[in-house]
Each structure stands twice: as C-alpha cells, then as structure tokens.
Specification:
This protein is α/β, with parallel strands linked by helices and 543 residues long. The protein contains 18 helices and 23 strands. It has a nine-stranded mixed sheet, with helices on both faces. A seven-stranded parallel sheet has the order 5-2-6-1-7-10-11, with helices on both faces. Strands 16-17-20 form a three-stranded mixed sheet, covered by helices on one side. Helix 1 runs parallel beside helix 3, helix 4 packs across helix 5 and helix 5 crosses helix 6. Bound molecules: glutamine (GLN). Glutamine (GLN) binds next to strand 19.
Length: 543
C-alpha cells in the first residue's frame, strides 16, 4: 500500500481544535491497526517557537530529540503515545532557511528563486518526508493558521499541487470550520463555513470532509446544506460538538464516522474494530472522581492557559489516576510577597512552581517555596521552579544572603544556580539550550526512586542554568538532597527534602511525557500527596 496523506486545514476562526481533530483521527486510525504520525506546518517565520514568549504562542513543547515545537505536538503525543521528532514540526522560517541556503550554495544557479516552484517544492518535500521513511502508513499534516491568511497560502498551494500530482486515493483533505449558534435568532449559521470553503477552493484545494465545530447538534438539514454549498459528498459533513474532555473527541469522531470516511477514501476496507478500553477507563475516572484537591500553579504566564498546557494536562491524567478532581488554582507569582503568601497559598493542598525565564515573578516564587517548605505543604518545582527551591534553601536554611541564579543576578555572592559550562560560549539564542531527553540516575531510597520505581529514567530538558556543584556538600549536609544526577556529567537533576512530607524539584520537564494512558509518575505521586495533606488537615477529600 502507498503511504497515505491526510491534510487538515481550518477556517473561520482559530482555536477550533484542529490539533485535537488531527490527533483524534490519528488515534482512530492507529486503533484500526495503521501506523500513523502527525506533523504540524506553522506559517510563522521563526525557525521554531523556542524564541517565542509563551504569551504569543503558548507553551513550547520539547521532543526527545531536542526539537522546540508547537504545543499541538504535545496533543499528538498524548493522544498517540508515539514520540514526535524534529521532522514533525515545520515552519515557514525553516522552509525559507533551506531554500535561501541552497540559493547561496548555488543549487539554483541561473534561476530566479520564487515561491512557486522553489518554496512550494520545499514544502512538498517536507510534507512527504516522514512518508518516505517507511515507518508509517498514514501521515496526517495539520496546517496552522486559518484559510485566507496571506501566510498560509504557500502551504495551501503545496497541498493543491499534491492533490493534482498524487492518485486520489492517496490523499485526503479535511477542513475544520465553525458553525456558530446565534442565540437571538435561535439558529445555527452555515454562512461562515461556506465562505471558508470557498476560500479554500479558490486556493485550489478541495475538501473531502468538512468538520463543523459547534455548540449544538447539527441537524440533517444543516449537514445537507453545507454539503451541497461546499461541494462535498452528502454525509461528509460532520460535527465536532463541544466535549467535556478533549480525550472524548476520538470517540465522538468515531460516532460521526470520520475514520471510516477516510479509510474508504483510501480504499482500505478491512480493519479491526478499535479498542478503547484503556481510554474509556481513563474517561470514566475523569468524569466520576471520588475525591478532590486544590493545587496552586504558581507561575508568571498564568493569564494564558496555553502557556502551561502540558502541566495542566498532566494534572488531568494524574487526577484521573487517583480518581481525584484536581482544582488547579493559577497564581501570578508577581503578586506574591511575604505579607500575602499565607492568604494566597495557605489554603492549598499542594503547590507547583512552574518553569520560566527571566526575573519577573521570581521573588514571589521564592516566597511561595519558603512557605510550603516551612508549613509541610507538598511541593513540586519544575525547571525554574526547582532552581528557585535551591535558591530559597540557600538563602533561608544555609543563610547565604543574596544567593541567586546568575540568570538574574550575575554578580550574586552565592551563585547557587549558574550557567552550564557549555552555555558560556553561546551567544545565539535559538535552539542552543540544553534540549531533549537525557538520562538521570536516581539515588536509592529517595522519594524520586520510590516514585519512579527504577534507577535510570529519561526525561526532557530545556534550560541553560544548573545547580552549582560547588554548593552540593553544604546543601546536602543541611538537608537538601540531590537525589537524581546525570550519570555522565553529574549534573543535579532532582533535589528533595527527605524530612518534608513531599518536597521535590526537578530540572527536567516531566509534564512533557504524561499521557492519559500512562500518567507521569511524579504528577501521580504529587496529587496523592496533596490528597494526604488535605486529609491530614481535616479537610474533606471526598466529593
Ligand atoms: N530559565 C531557566 C534556565 O534557563 C529555567 C528554564 C525553564 O524553566 N525551562 O535554566
């Protein structure tokens, strides 16, 4: 069988859940026995989102192989359980970078280099790349942005050319739109969808299936009307109705027949029934929790949900694993100081201090950590959160006044967090952090070892600064244990306070590997610790 390609475009509005639809279809095809991967093509000119402020584009998701990518890749991994790679996220910047470099090398000598064919050829090459590895039966490509944007036009042109070049049964196109409900008129409106599909067709791309995001059930009349006006087969207009959980969407898409439509388009007629026992048991626990806890997420990008996407998803997974509803209270670290810390986090069952960069909100994070350390409230620090628990411990337990990370105070008398050696010569910002998966060796009888149940773990990283080994002995003697180290370099990856009920800081990003079916063990243990703390304080966990 030839490799099959599915392209997912979107129209009318952004944030309709194109990534979730792409991931849900992938999940369904995977459950039907096919080897599937997903890639995202983003129209912006940055080479990758690594240099973007999270307020601009949400969290930057990091893969095992060290790519800094769009957060949709996180959804792909969480839905599929398959690891993404550098090749799974392409930007306009990457495409132009390749073409311009080739031009300088003389690859196009004598020719005028143009969007068509040079840029579109490079887009097509990348669209087909994963298909050429022989590892996959189906490649799903999500095109970022909204149809009609000037920036996504070369991507649509590339899809048009592929639709023209490839056998019809090897390529399918799905378009996701919005069918808004007008309360005053008590009506669902299809006009924006019609316009969106018109624009797609003007670009020469013909959709095979239209998925309509909607708050209300689409009637058969509306489906027929959209099919007629948008020139797709009757029955090929389906709904994506608001779901209580994104993990419900694969099942909803199956009910709508999305996977069967695509399989029959590909001429694939024999396939097993999908087995969703695991996902269903996760959803049952998610929808019917027995307990609840209140956990603070202390960070500086809290105004934008997407900035901490993987952390929030990890709480959903870990909550379900504990049959516990995790009420996440986001707290702006900039607003925390010694006078209000009790009021802000005193009532919480546990506190997570988030990753981040730069000075803003750091002192608030340190205040929050001091409070939870002294009040035996479960603490989980991730990356910058871990670094700040080291700073807090140095200042308030070791009495090292002015201890800091050199990221914010290069002249600190006690640089307990310092720039990594190999970062000292780096001036370029893009793609130069310590990125991707590294091994970590856990100390016997540590909390970390108890949580993971194994000696060597692998987690993903994205940082430039590290625990300064010069302070290790003093810190350990005072009760902050380095319980996880990189086996090759000795870099401190995990710290914990053994005398505290649950106090752990990790230099890596465990949230990037959590899935509904395999929840991340530190998150699972942290939620459990929050439940235990709530019980021990006489607050009721039971719902
Ligand atoms: N800013 C810190 C560093 O670069 C932490 C990074 C993070 O939290 N991802 O080391």
């Amino acid at each position: 069988m030839n490799t099959k390609y599915v392209f997912v475009t979107g129209g009318v509005a952004s944030s309709l859940g194109k990534g979730i639809i792409a991931a849900s279809l992938a999940k369904l095809l995977q459950a039907r026995g096919l080897r599937v991967t997903i890639q995202k093509f983003d129209p912006y000119i940055n080479i990758d989102p690594g240099t973007l402020n999270p307020y601009e584009h949400g969290e930057c998701y990091v893969t095992d192989d060290g790519a800094e990518t769009d957060l949709d890749l996180g959804h792909y991994e969480r839905f599929l359980g398959v690891h993404m790679t550098k090749a799974n996220n392409v930007t306009t910047g990457k495409v132009y970078f390749t073409v311009i470099n080739k031009e300088r090398e003389g690859a196009y000598l004598g020719k005028t280099v143009q969007i068509i064919p040079h840029i579109t050829d490079e887009i097509k090459r990348r669209m087909l790349l994963l298909g050429k590895t022989g590892q996959f039966d189906v490649i799903i490509t999500e095109v970022g942005g909204t149809v009609g944007d000037m920036e996504s036009q070369p991507f649509l042109e590339a899809i048009r050319q592929l639709q023209w070049e490839m056998p019809e049964e090897d390529l399918a196109s799905i378009h996701l739109t919005l069918v808004p409900y007008l309360r005053a008129a008590k009506e669902l409106k299809t006009k924006p969808t019609q316009h969106s599909v018109q624009m797609l067709q003007q670009a020469g791309v013909h959709p095979d299936v239209i998925v309509c995001r909607t708050e209300k059930e689409l009637t058969p009349e509306i489906r027929r009307k959209v099919a007629l006006f948008c020139n797709v087969k009757p029955g090929h207009v389906i709904q994506s109705i608001d779901a209580p959980s994104i993990y419900q969407v694969p099942m909803n898409m199956e009910k709508e027949g999305l996977d069967e439509m695509i399989l029959s388009h590909f001429g694939i007629n024999h396939y097993p029934e999908p087995d969703f026992t695991k996902l269903q048991s996760f959803l049952d626990k998610l929808y019917h929790p027995k307990y609840q806890v209140d956990i603070a997420l202390v960070g500086k990008y809290v105004e934008l949900q997407d900035a901490y996407k993987s952390i929030l998803e990890s709480f959903v997974h870990a909550g379900a694993a504990n049959e516990c509803k995790v009420n996440v209270h986001t707290i702006q670290s900039e607003h925390i100081d010694a006078s209000n810390v009790e009021e802000k986090i005193g009532g919480m069952d546990a506190v997570l201090v988030a990753p981040g960069f730069g000075e803003r909100g750091l002192e608030g994070k340190i205040q929050a950590i001091k409070y939870v350390r002294e009040h035996n409230i479960p603490f989980f620090g991730i990356c910058l959160g871990m670094q700040m628990c080291v700073v807090e411990f140095a200042r308030n337990v070791l009495g090292l006044k002015g201890a800091a990370s050199t990221e914010v105070d290069p002249s600190s008398p006690y640089p307990v967090i310092d720039l990594m050696e190999d970062q000292k010569s780096t001036t370029i910002k893009g793609g130069t952090m310590r990125l991707g998966a590294y091994n970590c060796k856990l100390a016997p009888e540590s909390l970390a070892y108890k949580i993971y149940g194994t000696e060597i773990i692998s987690e993903r990283h994205r940082h430039r600064y590290e625990f300064n080994g010069d302070y290790l002995e003093r810190m350990e003697a005072a009760g902050l244990r380095a319980s996880g180290r990189n086996p090759e370099t000795g870099l401190v990856e995990i710290v914990e306070i053994p005398t505290h009920p649950f106090f752990i800081g990790v230099q890596f990003h465990p949230e990037l590997k959590s899935t509904p079916e395999i929840p991340q063990p530190v998150f699972v243990a942290f939620v459990k610790a929050a439940m235990a703390n709530r019980n021990s304080r006489g607050r009721v966990c039971e719902l």
